[in-house]
Write a structure and sequence with these properties.
This protein is α/β, with parallel strands linked by helices and 817 residues long. The protein is 55% helix and 7% strand. The protein has a four-stranded parallel sheet with strand order 1-6-2-5, sandwiched between helices. The longest helix is centred in the first third of the chain and has 21 residues.
C-alpha cells in the first residue's frame, strides 16, 4: 500500500508558475492547492476586478469569459483578460471560492495599464519595445525541440503524476528553469514587467501580513523569480510611483475559443483551445475520446465514418507518436491520423475538424448580476425578447418583415450597425431593399462588448443611442451622398426621431451641391427609401420633394457633365447613369403617375446617345437603356451602332461604345445572340479593326465579353464560326420574317404551360404570396396583379420572372423562343 504524502508545511508563500491557458498547468495547480490548502490565493490580474471574483462561482457563469477593463471617459481604450475552463487562473479562483479561501488579483492595476497603453501610442518612456523572449521556446530549444508546443505537450501536458508524487515539485523545477533563463537573458527588456512585478510583490507582502505564509500565488512562470527575489517595500514603491492613471470600469464579458487562439489579453495565443479543453476534461484515454468526437462531427456532416475507422485512426496516432519518439500521441499525430483515415487524405473535411473541434465554437455566458453599461442591458433584454441569441459561429437568419418579431429583429440589427456594433451583416443579393424579406449573417465577437461600451456614450438604450448618433452624423456629414445614405439607414432602422435633423441636413446639402456626380450618387438611396419605405411602415413623404429636386437638377446638368471625360471619369459617369436610371424607374414606375419624369429622363438619354462629344461608353450605355425601355426601335439602335462603329470612328472610341452598349450585367451577350443584325455589325467592325489598333482595343473588349456567362460566350463563338451568312436578317414585330426558331409574338398557351411546374417547384402558397405582394419583385416595370394564382396576367408574370433569370429585358423587342 502506497502511503499518502503528508501535507507540506508552508515554508514561505507557494509560488505556482504556470503557462496561461495550459491544461497541464491547470491540473497541476489544482493538485497543489488541494495538497497545501492555503488560506489566500493571489492570481495574476487587475486588482480592480476583486469585487467581481465572487461571480466566478455563479451558476450562470460559463467560461470562456474575460475580464473587460475600459476607460470610462474613452470606452474604446480597453483591455481583456480571457480565461477558459482549462486556464490555471480560473481553476485557482474557483478552488478558492469553493474552499472559503481569500482570493485577490495582484497584477498592475488596469487604471495604470490602460493609461500606459494610451501613452505607448505616442512617443515617450513607455513606447512599446521589442517583445521579450518566449521562455517556453527557449526551454524547448535547450531540450533539442524545434517546436515549443510539442515540447510543452511532452513535458507538461502528457506528464502523468505518479501516485504519491509531490504536487509542488513541478513548480519548483519550473521556477529554477525560469531563474536560469532570466539570469541568461535578463528580465525580458520590457520596462512594464519591472513595474508589474513590483505591484505583485507589494500585494504579496500585504497578503502575507494578513495570512502569514499560507498564501499561494498563481502567475506566469516568467515572474516567479522576481516574486521570490529579496527587495524592499521602499524600492518597489519607488518603481510604481508617478504612473499615469485613468478612471476605469470593469466587468465580465463572454469570450470564445476563436479569440483564445489569438494573441490578446494574457497573450498565450494558443492554437488549439478546443484540443486543450479536451485534454483538461478527459479523465483517461484522451486520444480515443478525441477520435470519437471527430467521428461524431464528420457524421453530422454526412460523411461515412465507422467504428473501424476510429480504431484504425487511434492505432495510427499511437504508431506515429512512437516513430517520432513522443511519450503519447499529441495533436499533430491525431491530426495526421484523422487526415489519413477519417478524411481520406483530404484537407477539406479536416478543415471542419479544425474549426469545430481543434479551435472550437464555444461561447461563454455571464450572469445577469455582472456589471454592465445600460446600453448592454437594453441589448441583452431585446436579444431575449426577440429570441436572437448571440453565437460565435456564422449563421444566416431569414427575416419576413411582415411578421412583428422579424420586423423588430431587423430594426435592432440596423440600429446596431448604425452604432458600429456589427453583430449582423446583410447578405447581398438576398432579401434586398424593397422586399418583405431580409437575410442577415450573424456572428458575435467578444470585441463587440467594447463597441457597445463605446456606443453607450450616445444613450442608454439602442433606440436613443442610434437616434443621437444619426443626428450627430447628419450634422457632421461632409458630402450629400453621406446624408442620403444616412437617411436611408434611418428609415431601415426605424428612427423617426432623427429624420427631421437628417432631412434638414439633406435639404441644405442638396441646395448647395452643384456637382452632378454627387447628385447622382445621392439619388438612388432616396429613391429606394421613397419606393420601399412603406415595406417597413415608415413615413417617407418628407423625402419626395428633395428627391424630385435632385432628379430635375440631374436631368439639366448631366449632358454637360458627360463631355471631356477621361477613361476613368467616363466609366464613373456610366455607373452614375445606370444608378440614376434605376432610381428614376423607382420614383416613377409605369403603374403610377410619372409626372413627366420618365419622359424627361428619356430625353436626356436621347441627347447623350446622339452627341459625339459625349464619352463613347456613356453614349453606348444611353442607347442601350433607351432600347431596353422600348423608346428606341431595333432599326434605330442598329443605325446608331453602325455610326459608332463606322471607319471614321477611332477604334478605341468604338470599343468604348460597345462596352457601354453590351457590357456589365445588362444582358448584352443575349442581345447579340438573338439579334443577328447587331451581331453582324459588331462582327464586321471587329474584323475590320487594323492590326496596329487591335492591341489597343483588346483589353476593353476582353473586359466586355468576359463578363458574359460561359454558355453565352460559347454561343457567340459558334455564331462567329458560322460566319455572316445569316447576318442582317430581319426580326421582331413589323420587320418581316423572324429568325429561325422564333415566333412573331408571345405564345400565350405555351406560357400557361409553365404554371403547373411553377406551383410544383415553389408551392401554391409561395405563388399566391408573390401575387399578394408584387413589391417582392423590384423590377421597375412589374405590374400589379391579382392575388389569385391563376390570374390571366400570370403568363406575363412568369415571362418577366424569366427575364430576371436570364438578363434579357422585356422591352428590347427581342422575341423569345
Amino acid at each position: 500500500m502506497i502511503p499518502t504524502p503528508a501535507t507540506p508545511e508552508p515554508a514561505g508563500p507557494l509560488l505556482l508558475g504556470v503557462r496561461h491557458h495550459g491544461p497541464g498547468s491547470a491540473r497541476a495547480v489544482l493538485a497543489a492547492l488541494d495538497a497545501v490548502r492555503p488560506r489566500a490565493v493571489l492570481v495574476e490580474g487587475p486588482p480592480e476586478a476583486d469585487a467581481l471574483l465572487a461571480l466566478a462561482a455563479d451558476p450562470g457563469m460559463r467560461p470562456p469569459v474575460a475580464l473587460l477593463a475600459h476607460a470610462e471617459d474613452d470606452p474604446g481604450l480597453a483591455s481583456f483578460w480571457p480565461m477558459a475552463e482549462f486556464s490555471p487562473e480560473w481553476v485557482a479562483i474557483r478552488w478558492a471560492l469553493a474552499h472559503g479561501a481569500a482570493v485577490h488579483f495582484v497584477d498592475l492595476p488596469a487604471a495604470h495599464s490602460l493609461a500606459l497603453a494610451a501613452a505607448a501610442q505616442g512617443e515617450g518612456e513607455w513606447e512599446t519595445p521589442p517583445a521579450p523572449p518566449d521562455p517556453v521556446a527557449l526551454l524547448a530549444e535547450a531540450a533539442g525541440y524545434d517546436d515549443p508546443e510539442r515540447w510543452w505537450e511532452d513535458v507538461v501536458e502528457h506528464r502523468s503524476s505518479a501516485p504519491g508524487a509531490d504536487p509542488v515539485a513541478p513548480f519548483t523545477a519550473l521556477a529554477e528553469a525560469m531563474a536560469a533563463l532570466r539570469e541568461t537573458y535578463g528580465d525580458g527588456g520590457h520596462p512594464r514587467d519591472a513595474v508589474r512585478e513590483a505591484f505583485m510583490r507589494i500585494r504579496l507582502r500585504a497578503a502575507r501580513k494578513e495570512f502569514g505564509d499560507e498564501v499561494a500565488v498563481v502567475c506566469g512562470a516568467w515572474h516567479v523569480p522576481a516574486l521570490a527575489a529579496r527587495t524592499t517595500l521602499t524600492a518597489d514603491r519607488a518603481l510604481v510611483r508617478g504612473l499615469p492613471k485613468v478612471k476605469t470600469g470593469m466587468t465580465w464579458v463572454p469570450w470564445t475559443h476563436r479569440r483564445l487562439a489569438r494573441r490578446s489579453g494574457y497573450g498565450a495565443g494558443i492554437e488549439a483551445p478546443g484540443w486543450y479543453a479536451h485534454l483538461f476534461h478527459a479523465p483517461d484515454r484522451p486520444v480515443e475520446r478525441w477520435m470519437t468526437k471527430v467521428a461524431g462531427l464528420l457524421r453530422d456532416e454526412d460523411r461515412f465514418v465507422s467504428p473501424a475507422h476510429v480504431i484504425e485512426a487511434v492505432r495510427l496516432a499511437g504508431t506515429l507518436a512512437a516513430l517520432r519518439g513522443r511519450p503519447l500521441a499529441g495533436l499533430a499525430e491525431a491530426t495526421d491520423a484523422v487526415r489519413a483515415v477519417l478524411c481520406d487524405g483530404s484537407d477539406v473535411p479536416l478543415g471542419l475538424v479544425h474549426d469545430g473541434l481543434v479551435v472550437g465554437t464555444a461561447l461563454g455566458e455571464v450572469p445577469d448580476g455582472a456589471p454592465a453599461v445600460p446600453l448592454q442591458r437594453d441589448l441583452t433584454r431585446q436579444q431575449r425578447t426577440l429570441r436572437l441569441k448571440p453565437e460565435p459561429a456564422d449563421r444566416e437568419v431569414e427575416l419576413d418583415l411582415r411578421r412583428e418579431n422579424d420586423a423588430a429583429r431587423s430594426l435592432l440589427l440596423h440600429r446596431l450597425r448604425l452604432l458600429a456594433v456589427d453583430w449582423g451583416e446583410p447578405v447581398a443579393g438576398r432579401g434586398s431593399t424593397g422586399t418583405f424579406r431580409e437575410t442577415w449573417r450573424l456572428r458575435w465577437e467578444p470585441e463587440l462588448s467594447v463597441r457597445i461600451a463605446e456606443a453607450g456614450t450616445w444613450g442608454t438604450t439602442v433606440l436613443t443611442a442610434a437616434t443621437a448618433k444619426a443626428e450627430s452624423e447628419a450634422l457632421a456629414a461632409a458630402t450629400l451622398g453621406e446624408v442620403t445614405a444616412l437617411a436611408e439607414h434611418c428609415l431601415l432602422a426605424g428612427l423617426p426621431g432623427a429624420l427631421p435633423v437628417v432631412m434638414r441636413a439633406l435639404a441644405d446639402r442638396a441646395a448647395l451641391d452643384a456637382d452632378v456626380s454627387h447628385l447622382a450618387e445621392a439619388l438612388p438611396a432616396l429613391a429606394r427609401s421613397l419606393r420601399y419605405g412603406d415595406v417597413r411602415a415608415t413615413d417617407t413623404a418628407a423625402l419626395g420633394e428633395v428627391a424630385a429636386g435632385l432628379a430635375a437638377r440631374i436631368c439639366v446638368g448631366l449632358p454637360a457633365a458627360c463631355t471631356a471625360l477621361d477613361a476613368d471619369g467616363a466609366e464613373a459617369m456610366r455607373r452614375a447613369v445606370d444608378e440614376v436610371h434605376g432610381a428614376i424607374a423607382l420614383l416613377a414606375p409605369p403603374d403610377e403617375p410619372a409626372h413627366g419624369l420618365r419622359d424627361r429622363w428619356a430625353a436626356v438619354l436621347g441627347k447623350l446617345s446622339a452627341r459625339d462629344t459625349v464619352a463613347g461608353v456613356v453614349r453606348g450605355r444611353a442607347t442601350r437603356l433607351l432600347l431596353d425601355e422600348g423608346r428606341l426601335g431595333d432599326g434605330e439602335a442598329a443605325r446608331l451602332m453602325s455610326l459608332a462603329l463606322s471607319p471614321g470612328t477611332p477604334p478605341a472610341h468604338a470599343a468604348a461604345w460597345i462596352d457601354g452598349f453590351l457590357g456589365g450585367a445588362s444582358g448584352g451577350g443575349m442581345l447579340l445572340v438573338h439579334d443577328e443584325r447587331l451581331f453582324a455589325l459588331v462582327d464586321g467592325w471587329l474584323t475590320g479593326v487594323p492590326d496596329d489598333a487591335f492591341t489597343d482595343v483588346l483589353p476593353l473588349l476582353r473586359r466586355t465579353f468576359s463578363a458574359y456567362e460561359p454558355g453565352v460566350r460559347r454561343t457567340l463563338g459558334e455564331l462567329a464560326r458560322r460566319g455572316p451568312a445569316g447576318a442582317g436578317r430581319a426580326r421582331g414585330p413589323g420587320t418581316g420574317a423572324a429568325p429561325p426558331g422564333f415566333g412573331p409574338e408571345l405564345d400565350g398557351p405555351r406560357a400557361d404551360a409553365v404554371l403547373p411546374l411553377l406551383r410544383l417547384v415553389l408551392g401554391p402558397e409561395r405563388v399566391a404570396e408573390h401575387f399578394d405582394h408584387p413589391e417582392h419583385f423590384d423590377h421597375p416595370t412589374h405590374p400589379a396583379h391579382s392575388a389569385h394564382p391563376t390570374h390571366p396576367a400570370l403568363p406575363e408574370y412568369v415571362e418577366r420572372a424569366s427575364d430576371r433569370a436570364r438578363p434579357v429585358l422585356p422591352r428590347t423587342g427581342v422575341d423569345r423562343p
